[in-house]
Amino acid sequence: MTYPLNGIAPLSHLGVIRVEGEDAAKFLHGQLTQDFALLGMDQARLAAFLSAKGRMQASFIGFKRSATEVLLVCSRDLLPPTLKRLSMFVLRAKAKLTDATNDFALYGVAGDTVPDGSQPAWTKADIGTASVVHLYPADGQPRALWVAPAVDPVPAGPALDAALWLWSEVKSGVATLTTPVVEAFVPQMLNYESVGGVNFKKGCYPGQEVVARSQFRGTLKRRAYIAHAAAEVAVGAEVFNTADLEQPCGTVVQVASAPGGGFDTIVSLQISAAQEGSLQVGATDGVALALLPLPYALLEDI
């Protein structure tokens, strides 16, 4: 069943890091999983900031506001520690990082309200003083992130329930990292290499060797999946195969109330567990999980 995913929702759960200076893009290029050196004004990047062990500490949607200003949109709960960690690496780079959350208004735009909704994900357009980043669709509907100065008027269009937008985020299959799952995953465990979040041709960045080894040596054993649960489950909760309730086989990454009842979730699972057996969240009195189709194809493992 398709639900009416159309309109504009304010996104109070997201924050903005501003990176300013002539080395802004170069600095980010050396820290994140995506290529910022070649970032054009009509593009955006999905990217992750990793620990030295290749574990995700934050995820971003990044784009240029000007030749010397890059905005990074991330989960608001992760912004303070992420800003602090990233700032430690600036050193001699001509780049200044600040919390710009209060300077911008962020909206999720879906359905017929999306300007030029046929554009592919991570395409960016400037409409007046607003930056519009096209995202992965959800439930067959186009979606975009609208970022504008806080003083700008609200974009025109019908109101969209924020809960419905959060559900669309889950249904898109593109996870946004939050505090309960910091350092729980290498990017491929959330399918980031398949949705434009990793560039394997760019230069070094923290954790790169781990990411490359997972991709090119066939050591990846976990992937992200979308699943449905009848009852609410918590981000960070362990997932078990009912054939083995001693050892968890996955983790809940993101959860949203489903408009048709129950809850939809992104889970990172051992590939073998996803392919056979029944799944549940929690070993005792577990909540059953039913896997749903991913809305995009996975890149072939190399």
The percent range for strand residues is 25-35%
Shape: globular
Query: Please, what is the average pLDDT?
Result: 94
Task: Report the structural category.
Answer: alpha+beta
* Sheet with the most strands: spatial strand order: 11-14-13-12-15-16
What's the CATH class label of the domain at 7-172?
Alpha Beta
The CATH homologous superfamily of the domain at 7-172 is termed Probable tRNA modification gtpase trme, domain 1
Tally the helices: what do you get?
5
Element order, helices and strands? EEHEEEHEEEEEHHEEEEHEE
Percent helix range: 10-25%
Outline the biggest β-sheet: 6 strands, antiparallel, barrel
Low-confidence stretches: none
* CATH T-level fold name of the domain at 7-172: Gyrase A, domain 2
Distance between the termini: 36 Å
Write up what this structure looks like.
- The protein is of the alpha+beta class and 302 residues long.
- It has a domain at 7-172: 2-Layer Sandwich (Gyrase A, domain 2).
- It contains five helices and 16 strands.
- It has helices at 24-29, 79-87, 162-172, 208-216, 271-275, and strands at residues 7-10, 14-20, 44-50, 56-66, 69-75, 96-99, 104-110, 124-127, 130-134, 143-149, 222-229, 238-241, 250-257, 263-270, 279-281, 287-292.
- The strands form three sheets. The chain has a six-stranded antiparallel beta barrel. A five-stranded antiparallel sheet has the order 1-7-10-9-8, with no helix packed on it.
- β12 and β13 (250-257) form a beta hairpin.
